[in-house]
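Risk register update: the risk of archive-format incompatibility is retired. Evidence:
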Amino acid sequence: MTPLGIVDSAGQSQTGHVRSHNEDSYLMRGPLFLVADGMGGAAAGEIASTMCTEAFAEINLIRLHGADALRAAVSSANASIYERAQANPELAGMGTTVIAALVDEDAVVTFAHVGDSRAYLMREGVLRRLSEDHSVVAELVASGHLTEEEAVSHPQRSVITRVLGAEPNVEVDTFTIDGAAGDVVLLCSDGLTGMVSDERIAELLAADEPAEAITRNLVRAALEGGGEDNITAIVLRLGELDDQPTGSMRLILTTDPDLLPPDDGSDSWRPGRKTLFAGIGTIAVVVVLAVGAAIGLRQSHFIGANESTGRVEIYQGVPWELFGGIKLYHVVRVTSITYASLDPQTRKDLFDHRLRSESDAEAEIQRIEEGSP
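Archived output:
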């Protein structure tokens, strides 16, 4: 029996037409995907959603699995955000929603949910909302006091009843689905669902297009609908792993939340480069794919630096970029170490693009962070 797994995935985030900055964050870490929608005013919402994403990026997916891994990450994120808000009066009231999905080796997808960011499943042409909003209007609809249509324009539609960071502890909903070939899963913030109807979302998810194009079209639809909030969407497709379509190894294709690629199919747009790699020819592409298949992209990690921020980062995958901007790697952890703070020998040792296990990469970073000889 051919195993099932993730054959295509992509994420997009946009500030929108009204907000001055983006308080959404998202994470794509191998089998782990997350969207967080921060709140709290000024930069507080952005801080909260980023802290949530960082907590999930640090999950030990070897030791923890499924709902246990997601609950541990939610608990860690909630405690960190709450403690920071308590210690900093200017951050009082900050918090974030979270919707996360973790796909295991049997294509069982486990979700964790707090707030009003959502998870959807498109299966055999039918769209199903998997998560229930933790909001005032959702409770009114459930109790029969509001219809779904009335909830869309209700003045309290943005008031949520559960959020990370508001209290020392938070209740998290977890649930699972058994994945099937052809399933398309959407994780998104309410900046998408508040501007785009479920019918339109279903139409876009059903399109026979790569995940990158679908996420771009979802964000564009929200912008055309008004773009009143930050908009974030992650799309992942499940399928038979021995029959992956061309381009299915897109792991993360947008790094600048305020930029969207053109819709004309041109190759002129490029997201912010994390590291510099030389171009490779057709023969090298074949070799790269063969090596990548042999070593397993999920198990391979390397250490590099972000050109824009100067921060040292851990990447999952192999350090190559294919034609068309397709990367065989994505960031899983942003460290506190800056490139400029390292001596030349440490830089040489650290950025040799040697493939490591996740634990080895973490141990190397920890050694440097702690200043060990």
